[in-house]
UniProtKB/TrEMBL annotation:
<feature type="signal peptide">
    <location>
        <begin position="1"/>
        <end position="21"/>
    </location>
</feature>
<keyword id="KW-0732">Signal</keyword>
<dbReference type="InterPro" id="IPR050490">
    <property type="entry name" value="Bact_solute-bd_prot1"/>
</dbReference>
<dbReference type="Pfam" id="PF01547">
    <property type="entry name" value="SBP_bac_1"/>
</dbReference>
<protein>
    <recommendedName>
        <fullName>ABC transporter substrate-binding protein</fullName>
    </recommendedName>
</protein>
<dbReference type="InterPro" id="IPR006059">
    <property type="entry name" value="SBP"/>
</dbReference>
Amino acid sequence: MIHLKKIGLIVTLSSVLLLSACSGNGGGESKGETKGGKKTVVVSVMMKDRFLESAVQKFEEKHADIHIEMKEYKALPKTGEGGMSMESLSLADIEKYGQSVTTQVISGKGPDLMLMNELPQDKFVGKKLLVNLNDLLAKDNSFDRNALYANILKASQDGDGLYVIPLSYSLDLVRGNTELLKKANISVDQNKPWSWMQFKDVAKKLKQQGYEGFENLSPTDLLFDYIEDNYAQLVGQGKPGFDSELFRNMMKEIKLMYDEGLLNEGLSGFASTSSKGAFIMAGIYSPEDALTMASNLDYYQKPSANGKKNGLPFKFHYSLGMNSKSGVQPEAWAFIKFLLSDDMQASPNLTGLPMNKSVADQRFNEVLQKIKNGTLDTPIPKNMLPDMEKAKKRIEEVQKLISEADLRRSSDMKVLTIAMEEFNSFMSGQKSAEEVSKLIQNRVKTYINE
């Protein structure tokens, strides 16, 4: 899956393609049975994609008694090359989708399965709208839980319950131009956590030498990152904390970094040797992504608001939740298991890092072999690709990072949208931090209590 910035700034194309909704009305409703005695499992998706379409076809070939009905909220027009155009998808579309699915599920209706990436997971779990998949895992002797990354599964839980299961995920890191940092005589430890305040010191030194701290990082992107870093304090447990010095200081710090020219939104060819940017927000989205990163780049911890390491963060790409009111839970579970099988996890259409450990190792080795043979299809010039020794070392580094991933980063799309809308008036100088924080607080509180 190709990646864009988060929705209008926040949504990656990966998450967009994974959203859940129904054609025309948002969610779709489980029918339970169709003519011929088949059980129908309704799966809510924002847009169909190749991975899901192929999964449905293969699953139905193996399960003649189950029909998977994909309910699509918005079909994207095809481009001339046979791809899909993203121009017709708006923030309003995604918001309407979320509202529609949420309303249907709360009313006791809705689809059997939902791709949860842009749905309010906290609200769904709090209102007991999702099945605890740990119960199904425990009862099913045919499913090998050990085939999946245990640390990712554990970190995907809400309390002791697993209400959303990831099919694939990405690691939330930044890429740093190691060679540029050496030229600037600046040392940043790849393995140590650091704060945005520490980054400011680095950015000032870089600026003095004609370099930039981050490339292509907008104020809104940074705001979203701050909110996700402090989500428990700002949104958690239904008690918003935006009307606080914590959040006001966040906004002021962001504005100051842009006012002082320490950050900008420009992009000047990060992977190239002539690049002036030291860092870029780009984690590990797939085995191919990790091994085709230019040889002058390395992965670094992402700066945080407090500079403390609370865990190595990851984000869902595909993540599924099961409606607790579904009348076809065994059939829905069978489809989830199929999506986690070796066959589907090895699909070239699955984007993100596979949840299946053996498949992930296989994917890394396949990319490594293509690098060795010179057959890897990548826009990166071959002379900038890592050599075999560097590629093998990078695999080891990524596998270690995967084993350490233990902090699920998630947020409510509606909350981020509210924050973005009000924050822009602060950045433009139209409203004070105090005014904006109170407006966000009131709007988020209203939304949470709906």
